[in-house]
Design goal:
It contains 5 helices and 4 strands, in the order E-H-E-E-H-E-H-H-H. It is α+β, with helices and mostly antiparallel strands and 148 residues long. It has a 4-stranded antiparallel beta sheet, sandwiched between helices. Helix 1 crosses helix 2. It starts with 8 loop residues before the first strand and ends in a 10-residue tail after the last helix. 21% of the residues are buried.
């Protein structure tokens, strides 16, 4: 086979340090715009991105050149550096260590896109912790530490 092909969809989720509500509407829109623009320069295709005051959801197509860990590192690390460089907050901003990365089938894309875009409405009834725990259960990650 003379060429390499890949189409791997990943739903990424990460939170602010200590899950504190740092992402006000104004800050969140700037951060989301910046992450999307930075992703383009890194060759990471961001299909959909949104979040709430304490976390971000990002649907990416992984491609051939990056691992999940590297893509997340580029998006999270650079964006926290940018927030601090731009002085968007009166304190030093950090994302929480860690993230969730969940693979998707093509048939799940529209459902996940809607889910990501409706974060504000979704979080009127559910906390980020509840949401994240549900994602871990849906993707059967809860007992991942018990695998051989």
């Amino acid at each position: 086979m003379p060429h390499s092909y890949s189409k791997i969809w990943i739903h990424l989720v990460w939170s602010t340090k200590d899950r504190l509500p740092y992402l006000t509407k104004e800050v969140k829109s700037k951060v989301i715009f910046h992450i999307r623009e930075k992703a383009k320069t890194e060759g990471i295709y961001v299909d959909t991105i949104n979040g709430a005051e304490d976390h971000v959801h990002c649907l990416i197509e992984l491609g051939l050149k990056r691992s999940i860990a590297e893509a997340v590192s580029r998006l999270k690390g650079e964006s926290s550096h940018w927030v601090n460089e731009q002085a968007l907050m009166k304190f030093h901003f950090n994302w929480q260590i860690g993230y969730g990365a969940f693979s998707l089938a093509e048939s799940q894309l529209n459902t996940v896109r809607r889910y990501i875009l409706n974060q504000e409405e979704h979080h009127k009834a559910k906390t980020f912790e509840q949401e994240y725990n549900e994602l871990l259960m849906v993707y059967n990650v809860v007992n991942a530490d018990k695998r051989p």
